[in-house]
Amino acid sequence: MGGIRKVIMEKMRYLTIFILTVIMIMVSGCSMQKQSFEKWTFVHVADIQVGSPRSFRFAPAWNDNWQTAREQIIGIDPEFLLIGGDLTRDGYIHKWELESIKADLDRLPFPCHVIPGNMDVGNKHTDIDGARPDRNDIKLNMTQKQLDQFKSVFGPLWWTFVHKNLRVSGFCDMLPGSGLPDEEAQWRWLEKQTGKSQPQHHIWMMHYALFADSLDEPNWDITKIDQYLGWYFTIDEPWRSRVMEIFKQTDTDRVISGHIHCRKDHVADGIAFDLAAATCFSQWEEKWPDGDPRLGFYRYDVYNNKIEKTFIPLNRVSNRKGYGPGGHPSPEERDYSKAWDK
What 3-state DSSP class applies to 316? Predict the structure, then answer.
């Protein structure tokens, strides 16, 4: 009997240790999930399109507007700055434009995290030219060489980090459907994000908007002039749905995009989609009755249970005149003899 009692007591001891261990893990997990943070702030800006008087074209007003935004952002003193693409006017042509804005961002008193825009690496891909007679859309397709140039200055095209109670993730949304070498690598990385543990909040950053009006809208027809901008500003199916599924599987709170240069709020499947303003110039303001073409940027205040967004308009909007063509000029239209700085 004494031997049996000893075995039972030994088993009870192990059981007690096991139960206490489980309780400690549960308490620890709960305390991690309920970790509390004071309100803190980050800023998102997009489409600053800083140019250079060394180029075949230059809009000094856009550089002025960036300097105004820069001063205002420094005054806010965010914990970091997100830049949602189109850092440059023609970085997809001139590496020195990428290097110049990188040096400027490095002088800021807080970290910056960037994704490329089409003016930095080239446009999303098409195999047919569109309805705009002033553009050769096939020749404007992003190339691997342009992507490599951007990476040589700014580093990886896709990334994620956690700051306090927020995860921020960014990627190159012009890659889906391109067939370029970086596309498959990015898809593999995106799929891996679905297995990561998430803090209280998760924000994704894109350049192109995932959609213009609704998730289930049909692909816009590049060959029809009244649909050209819809094609130019958004992500086509089937890649739109594939990206959206990743957003849903990574507990996304909101997605911030640029490219359109007009503010508009959407919500789809419980996720907020913030279409951001530009600081260079506005466009497509006629698309939505409640679209806001004012120039500026977003301030985000992060709490434990919510993220509050505030639009900050520019204090000053420059009207200084420059030179050169707009849009996406062909190589034969690039007249460097007009450059102010020879």
Answer: coil
DSSP 263: B
Token output for 63: 């550089």
Residues 6+ apart with CB under 8 A from 299: 41, 43, 76, 78, 309, 310, 311, 312
Indicate the SS3 state at residue 161: strand
Pairing type for strands 159-163 and 166-170 reads: antiparallel
- Of 165, 168, 162, the closest CA to residue 35 belongs to 165
Helices marked H in the chain: 2-33, 60-76, 95-106, 118-121, 144-154, 181-192, 228-233, 239-249
Level-2 CATH architecture, domain 40-338: 4-Layer Sandwich (3.60)
Region label for 177, one of left (φ > 0), alpha (ψ between -120 and 50) or beta (otherwise): left
Model confidence, pTM: 0.89
Question: Strand order of the sheet with strand 40-45?
Answer: 112-114, 81-83, 40-45, 296-302, 307-313
Average per-residue pLDDT for the chain: 92
Q: Is 327 exposed, middle or buried (0-12, 13-18, 19+ CB in 10 A)?
A: exposed
Q: How many residues are recorded in the chain?
A: 342
Q: pLDDT (tens digit, 9 = 90+) per residue, 215-251?
A: 999 999 999 999 999 999 999 999 999 999 999 999 9
Joined together, the tokens standing for residue 282 give 């506005």
The token duo for 319 is 């009207």
Residues with Cβ within 8 Å of residue 24, at least 6 apart in sequence:
none
